[in-house]
Amino acid sequence: MSARLPTGIDILDRKLEGGIPAGSIVALTAEPASQAELLLYELTAARGTLYLSTGRSDQAVQDGLERTPTRTGSPTVRHIGDDGEPLDQANQLIRALPESANLIIDTADPLERREAVRYRNFLNELQTQMVNTEGLAFLHCLDGVAPPDNRDITHYMADVVFELETILNGEQIENRLVVPKFRGGKALTEAIKLEMTEQVSVDTSRDIA
User: Fold this and answer.
1) Cβ–Cβ < 8 Å for 54, 107
2) Pick from 22, 24, 53: which is nearest to 162 by CA?
3) pLDDT band per the 50, 70, 90 thresholds, residue 208
4) Element housing 48 (H / E)
5) What are phi and psi of 143, to 5 degrees?
């Protein structure tokens, strides 16, 4: 079994028996209005990170990292997609990843909207690169009203799938993280209720620990 790399988010690492197998691609699916960015920001504290933004400018991401109260690292932030083909831009940057690094793509949606064969080839090349460098790649996928046609390809090719659900329960907002897929380990049989305010922690106020 591949060595586990901790995510740096204590609750996830405990539930996942130490972390995620090195070389894995992780798809994080979340609603656009969720606190998924808090998860992404905390991931940057675990190790060196290349943060590729397809929506917000690199300055906007840097500002968000500086303003967040949670623990973060000092990722290299690059914006892709405005000038040229985003898949080609991403590939060029990914090929320069060092050993045991994190890659975050926020969001993967513009890449998923490319032609299916090209996108599948991109994911295959990404998988090879992550295995060779023994790092982790996180693809932030928006679960909006019109997800890209290639979302099924993302979930199929990904080694691990995180699904973050944000639920309004009366006057309370509940964040539930489900892990239905986990290559190299076992998927979780129960949702994890998360408290996502200043940092990601277990929500112990309700029925799921």
Assistant:
1) yes
2) 24
3) very low
4) none
5) -100, 70
* Statement: residue 88 has pLDDT above 70: yes
Using pLDDT thresholds of 50, 70 and 90, give the confidence band for residue 82.
Answer: confident
The two tokens of residue 21 are 């197998």
Residue 2: pLDDT band (50, 70, 90) is low
Beta carbons of 194 and 179 less than 8 angstroms apart: no
- Which structural domains are found in the chain, ordered by start? 4-202 (3.40.50.300)
String of DSSP letters for 66-135:
HH-SS-----EEEE-SSSS-HHHHHHHHHTT--TT-EEEEE--HHHHTS-HHHHHHHHHHHHHHHHHHT-
Amino acid at 50: L
